[in-house]
Amino acid sequence: MDVDPLGDVLRGRRSALARLVVGVGVHVHQAELLGHGSPSKACANPCTCANNGCRPGVPPSDPGRRCRGWDRPETLDDVTDLNARYAPRQRPRWFWPAIAAVGITLGIAFAAWVGFQKDPVTGRLWGYEVKSDNQVAVKVDVIRPDPIDVTCTVYSQAADHSIVGEKTFDVPASRREKVRVFVDIETERRGVNGVLRTCVPAD
């Protein structure tokens, strides 16, 4: 049996050196894994750590690092606009003119209906006569479709347009649609006219 002390020493040194190199390589690889797979490096996109080693909800420390298969919009214009996707319905050109025509037609119809409605009582001043400095006579036509009692009021004015006399009188119900009433107005000084104020159904 041959013994080579020098060879044994050299082989032992090689084995130790090889173990040292392997150990250093393992530690370096673990450090890289810890550096790249650390939970502190994460993406804002909900991607999985199996894809590129990031955690959802937290942006990566490296601004250039992005999750695989997803890009963050650079501006608000890149976000989908619902109005652009689903365009609002446009009304036809004839819509508003048709609405205006309908409104005008309804207005005319209502005005015509109101115009054809008969007032329950209509009073008209037929004429007046200044009899003296203290009296003015007036003539009033009362028109009523239905035989109802009517109350009318007349007055007289002086030259300065002040009221110098006034009188309210009743017109009894009658089958005649139109009646003419003669009324004398007593005045405190000379009146120059006679004026009909109102004719309304009696209370």
Automatic annotation (TrEMBL):
InterPro entries, sorted: DUF4307
Pfam families found in the cross-reference section: DUF4307
Highest taxon of source: Bacteria
Keywords: Membrane, Transmembrane, Transmembrane helix
Record bears the keyword Transmembrane: yes
Protein name in UniProt: DUF4307 domain-containing protein
TM segment ranges: 94-116
